[in-house]
């Protein structure tokens, strides 16, 4: 099995876990980066990136990290809060007058970032190609009345989060979300973190494939059954309206578009570096980082049909719920991405971790592969 990169001998047990993962015949490729107090102690990659198994994973291979990109867009908005250009509790209607449907006028940025806005899904059925039409998706979102009273419950917004935060960035920063992320986060910290790749980068992107026989946990089973049996349900519409949300990840148009909820592309190094930047105060001041890491919503998630716990734009540790645990420490935070990617940090141990893979598992929250890596890491710290 192809394996490359560098690792500190003190973390050899973590490297062993990663190497074992790559030996699974269903595991095509992955990369892992661990940084402790700003120092990179593990930066490794291995396997293949294409569906035919011919191209080896390289140092600069990019993979779609799906929802693991959500905290990056949140930080851009929190930086604007720090600049006084945006308020957490001002109705979004002030910045975005079209967000004025019955009940929408009470939605705030705090609601959006903690999945309490009541807009996790678009109501009207949309054609597959609508996914790539920003203005059409905004209009459909603007015409969706909240599914619950904003602030009264929470339900994860897998895709609508991207149009909500992306449009706010555009209206307030005056540039598209790709540019804002590049100039505010990726370029200053020199991170391989891209909201949609350029035409030139397409050749660096790994194909994403489902793993056959991946173990499905009860939360994933429940969600898949609901989506399959009730296409009109909020959960089904959140993940599959338009249907192209579920089927487009290897298409060039998906890789090139800007969808801050789901189509960030990165290396493990780029994603780990984002968390190190947060822990070291390079992206947010202490007050806003604390706000980001404060519990805003917890318990029954109306979209995912399992318990979730959110700060602002990030998922917080749930130690008592194994499928939702980072397996690192009680104050861990970050975000999983569909199929297995995980970016997270433990502020107490000053550690940032990113696991990026092109072989999709079946978990709704944390992937057992990433949890195994973190469990081994915890013993080394």
UniProtKB/TrEMBL annotation:
Q: Would I find Hydrolase among this entry's keywords?
A: yes
Q: Which GO terms describe its molecular function?
A: hydrolase activity
The record's InterPro entries line, in alphabetical order, gives: Beta-lactam-related (IPR001466), Beta-lactam/transpept-like (IPR012338), Beta-lactamase/esterase (IPR052907)
**Which key words are in the record?**
Hydrolase
Q: Where's the Beta-lactamase-related domain?
A: 17-371
Q: By its UniProt entry, which SUPFAM superfamilies does this protein fall under?
A: beta-lactamase/transpeptidase-like
Regions annotated as coiled coil: none
Name-wise, this protein is: Serine hydrolase
């Amino acid at each position: 099995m192809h394996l490359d990169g560098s690792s500190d001998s003190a973390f050899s047990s973590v490297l062993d876990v990663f190497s074992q993962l790559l030996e699974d015949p269903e595991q095509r490729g992955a990369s892992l980066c661990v940084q402790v107090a700003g120092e990179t102690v593990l930066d490794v990659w291995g396997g293949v990136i294409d569906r035919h198994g011919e191209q080896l994973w390289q140092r600069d291979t990019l993979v779609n990290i799906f929802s693991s990109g959500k905290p990056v867009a949140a930080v851009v908005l929190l930086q604007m809060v720090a600049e006084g250009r945006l308020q957490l509790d001002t109705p979004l209607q002030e910045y975005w007058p079209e967000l004025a449907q019955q009940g929408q006028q009470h939605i705030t940025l705090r609601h959006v970032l903690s999945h309490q806005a009541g807009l996790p899904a678009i109501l009207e059925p949309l054609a597959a190609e609508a996914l790539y039409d920003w203005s059409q998706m905004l209009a459909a979102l603007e015409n969706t009345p909240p599914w619950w009273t904003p602030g009264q419950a929470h339900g994860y917004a897998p895709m609508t989060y991207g149009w909500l935060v992306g449009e706010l960035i555009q209206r307030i920063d005056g540039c598209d979300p790709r540019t804002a992320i590049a100039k505010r986060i990726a370029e200053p910290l020199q991170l391989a973190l891209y909201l949609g790749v350029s035409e030139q980068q397409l050749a660096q992107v790994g194909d994403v494939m489902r793993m056959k026989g991946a173990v499905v946990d009860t939360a994933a089973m429940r969600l898949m059954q609901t989506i399959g049996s009730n296409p009109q349900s909020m959960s089904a519409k959140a993940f599959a309206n338009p249907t192209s949300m579920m089927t487009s990840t290897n298409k060039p148009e998906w890789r090139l578009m800007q969808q801050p909820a789901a189509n960030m592309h990165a290396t493990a190094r780029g994603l780990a570096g984002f968390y190190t930047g947060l822990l070291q105060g390079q992206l947010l001041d202490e007050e806003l980082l604390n706000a980001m890491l404060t519990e805003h919503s917890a318990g029954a998630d109306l979209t995912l049909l399992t318990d979730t716990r959110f700060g602002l734009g990030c998922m917080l540790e749930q130690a008592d719920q194994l499928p939702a645990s980072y397996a690192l420490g009680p104050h861990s935070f970050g975000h999983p991405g569909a199929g297995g990617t995980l970016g997270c940090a433990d502020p107490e141990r000053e550690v940032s971790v990113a696991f990026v893979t092109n072989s999709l598992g079946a978990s709704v929250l944390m992937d057992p592969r990433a949890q195994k890596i973190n469990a081994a890491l915890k013993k080394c710290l």
